[in-house]
Specification:
alpha+beta; Transcription Regulation, Sacy, Chain A; 2 domains
Length: 162
């Protein structure tokens, strides 16, 4: 598997047998360049890219995503996959990462949004809501950002609608 593009220190776009991938893992893109081989021991997550739009969307999100956030979002996804016993496709991860990144940005700017569906999400989707709560705990612990409780319901809705 060869690197086609380094998106950041932890995410690269790679090609293997004419199939495009987004490959994620701590330090995977650090000091790497186009043509280098992917260190398979560092791979934590691999997504197959099926079209050019997906490649462009990944690039848009990950070029501006701080390394620390990407790792936390990957941990959230891994936790959710274990709880829900499913695998999510690349577009889901893009949407989740994009949502969480801007939730963190809003928090830093002092902007708080309320989720009018928070009560319903807690009641009808308890597993997904717990994933949302775990996401907030990981963000607080690893990124030192306290998001409002309603954000757990917003995160949960991503998993409900996946």
């Amino acid at each position: 598997m060869k690197i086609e593009k380094v998106l950041n220190n932890n995410v690269v776009q790679a090609l293997d047998n004419n199939v495009e991938y987004i490959v994620m893992g701590k330090g995977l893109g650090f000091q790497k360049k186009v043509g280098d081989l992917v260190d398979k021991e560092k791979i934590e997550k691999t997504f197959v890219l099926e079209n050019t739009e997906a490649v462009e969307e990944w690039s848009r999100v990950y070029v501006n995503l701080p390394d620390g956030e990407m790792q936390v979002f990957l941990n959230i996804l891994t936790f959710a996959e274990a709880v829900l016993q499913t695998k999510f496709d690349p577009s889901f991860f893009i949407a989740l990462a994009d949502h969480l990144h801007y939730a963190i940005e809003r928090n830093r700017e002092g902007v708080s949004l309320q989720n009018p569906l928070a009560w319903e999400v807690r009641k009808f989707y308890p597993r997904e809501y717990e994933i949302g709560k775990q996401a907030l705990r990981l963000i607080a612990k690893d990124l030192e950002v306290q998001l409002a409780d309603d954000e757990a319901a917003s995160v949960a809705l991503h998993f409900v609608n996946a």
